[in-house]
Write a structure and sequence with these properties.
By secondary structure, the protein is of the alpha/beta class. It has a domain of about 140 residues: Rossmann fold (3-Layer(aba) Sandwich), CATH 3.40.50.1820. The protein has 6 helices and 6 strands. The chain has a 6-stranded mixed sheet with strand order 1-2-4-3-5-6. Helix 3 crosses helix 4. About 30% of the residues are buried.
Length: about 210
């Protein structure tokens, strides 16, 4: 009888330990939405909550969608210029910036449906949707799903197809062309590093130098 009690206690302790470990793992991979940009708001959708910064202007709407690992900060210098004549809405994709970071649901169709639902809640229609990199793919999907919402799209710095997906960043080295070799690195002097810093999420560090310390 005592042995049976010991076995039962060991099993219960093991189950509790597994539940605690699972809770920690889930907490590390998911995070609720939060407002981390002044003036932004949280808009709930069936796919998750998005952080959106709406200028509330009276002109035709322009929606700005950042790329992978970025946030709405990518457009922080462009948005005020557009706001002079447009209603500008900057959006954090799911898993980025202040938006929800669920454990799943990051397909392009999921991102697009969440985007369309949130924009519809804000009364947006007949918009120009601008997407940078991954945001361009999402912008295209939004236009396909909700043509009445995205009547025009602008795609910035996105490949025309997936032929590049197996290439590394150093694919053309050491036989790179002269312009490629002369291009400034993120960690070196020049305009690249300060120019792209605003586009990354707060707290994300950029590499100080090239791999290998060169």
């Amino acid at each position: 009888m005592r042995r049976w009690l010991r076995v039962t206690l060991v099993v219960l302790v093991g189950l509790v330990a597994l539940l605690l470990l699972n809770a920690v793992a889930v907490n590390n991979t998911t995070r609720d939405a939060e407002v981390n940009v002044d003036g932004a708001e949280l808009v709930e959708t069936s796919s998750g909550t998005l952080q959106i910064l709406d200028t509330g202007g009276t002109g035709s709407p322009v929606v700005l969608i950042h790329g992978y690992t970025g946030s709405m900060n990518w457009f922080q210098e462009l948005a005020p210029l557009l706001a002079a004549e447009h209603r500008v809405l900057s959006v954090d994709l799911l898993g980025h910036g202040g938006s929800d970071k669920p454990g799943a649901g990051y397909e392009i169709t999921d991102q697009a449906s969440a985007m369309a639902e949130a924009l519809a809640r804000l009364g947006v229609s007949d918009a120009t949707v601008v997407g940078h990199s991954l945001g361009g793919t999402v912008a295209t999907a939004v236009a396909e799903q909700s043509p009445e919402l995205a009547t025009r799209i602008v795609i910035i710095d996105q490949a025309p197809n997936d032929d590049h997906e197996d290439l590394s960043l150093a694919a053309h080295r050491p036989g790179a062309s002269a312009p490629d070799r002369d291009r400034p690195e993120l960690g070196g002097p020049g305009p690249v590093r300060p120019g792209i810093r605003p586009g990354f999420q707060h707290g994300q560090r950029l590499r100080e130098s090239r791999p290998g310390g060169r």
